[in-house]
Amino acid sequence: MTEPVKPVILVVDDTPANLSLMSGILQDYYQVKAATSGEKALKIAASANPPDLILLDIMMPEMDGYQVCRHLKSDSHTREIPVIFLTAMSEVQDEALGLELGAVDYITKPVSPPIALARIKTQITLYHQRKALIESQRKLAAELNEAAEYVLGVLPAPIRQGEVHTNWKHVPSTSLGGDAFGYHWVDDDHLAIYLLDVCGHGVGSALLSVSAINALRSQSLKAADFTSPGSVLAALNNAFQMEDHSNKFFTAWYGVYNRRSGELRHASAGHPPAFLFTADANNTSIMHQLSTGNIAIGYLPGMPFEESSLIIQGPAKLYVYSDGVYELHQRDGSMLTLYEFTAIIKRMTEIGRSQTDDILSAMTALKSEPGPFDDDFSLLEVIFSR
Amino acid sequence: MRKAASTNNEKVDKNMLEIKSECTDNVLVIAPAGRLDGITSREFSEKIIALIEANSPRVVLDLAGLNYISSEGLRVILTAAKKSKSGGGTLTLCAAQPSVHEVLTISGFAPMLGVHATVEAAVSTVRN
């Protein structure tokens, strides 16, 4: 990295003769600022143009070098500036204290110009590299956040009016996840509901999940009938072969609800079953597991995708989710299985009300450690009132 | 999608996958034991393709010793199935542990390739 201007070094010494000596050594390579007391040094260090390095004499009246160093290291504005102590030969044994206080090095007096210049150059290079690294990390994080906001923006608003209500929870395991989902009315009668889960997470997975979800949302897939789940998955499979998408593939669940007939057609590709809850004549809830056993999208071109259907006759509730909802480490070290997750959902589900918050809390409580889930958590809930 | 399955209580060495194979009467039985994940699947992929080329496209994967399979592992099985098919044979699976069986079922591999209870049942399927 090129430095357009000379780095700034602040020399702190109460003896003017020492200041001019150091200035003489440094001025060909650096812009030198001088302070004759600790107080003045702290002021310059905290100014809008802080130095790139501080050379600090130990023996000074009022505030000695150690005290100045303590102040510098306790202030977040000056903490990162490297400090090198200037030490008389007789004080070398005290240098352990200086290094403990956060100094990066020390130079003994009388100063040997080539040694002093070499040590200073090393520390300034390290400091600039560290600053550049922090800055590039900050920029990357900002870009990732922007991308994460875009992904969130692709997810639909909950539907809170009419005969179908929707809610969802989405918790990516890293700032960018590989899950995406959505729903939209294909025409006046047919509501499409879909969720997909790209292998892995991070930027690559998020890019694929967003482009696949956009293809579904905008209904721009060749030869697909968007009211036929099998046809949609086959078209997705032909459009997103893993060889053309950096060896990434995804699992998917796609359903179409016909609000006139109550028919729910569905197809899945390598995806855990969606759960549909209906009520029988005694108002006991019945769980249906909706899965059609196809392999994931992107594995094999030209595959047919089976679909299935059932009729919803009364109030019902549907859950579509990614495997990150249940693939978690429990306190005893074991992984929760799909079977156990199925039992939990079956036990807690009440058809008439939204329970996405309850399910997220229940799964969070099972985790062995706080913090994000091991994998992206996506849970989509659809409540049908008929 | 992160992983596919793991054993519940065993501590398994993360990098371990042992591969045994045997070819009898033109049927190749391959038995991977341990974990088939992102780390071990590359080696497994190379071995299984070489074994099919050198022996037979009629392949049985005996999964009795496999206690974990990730999506990368599934991909290797698929590659091997393609290889076997292009050689005029078939590839089928057998003896999967419950956690691995669950993954094979969810992923659609079980209905596509078949998971037999025993090696003998699998061998007789690929022979016919």
Describe this structure as you would to a colleague.
The complex is a heterodimer of chains A (386) and B (128). Chain A is 32% helix and 25% strand. Chain A is an alpha/beta fold and 386 residues long. Chain A folds into 2 domains: 8-138, Response regulator (Rossmann fold), CATH 3.40.50.2300; 155-384, Phosphatase 2c, domain 1 (4-Layer Sandwich). The longest helix of chain A has 42 residues, at 113-154. Chain A is elongated, with a radius of gyration of 32 Å. The mean pLDDT of chain A is 92. By secondary structure, chain B is of the alpha/beta class. Chain B contains 5 helices and 6 strands. Chain B has helices spanning 41-54, 71-86, 98-106, 109-113, 119-127, and strands at 17-24, 27-36, 59-62, 66-69, 91-94, 115-116. In chain B, helix 1 packs parallel to helix 2. Mean pLDDT of chain B is 87; it is low at 3-12. Classes of the chains: A alpha/beta (386), B alpha/beta (128).
Q: Summed up, what is this model?
A:
In chain A, about 30% of the residues lie in helices and about 25% in strands.
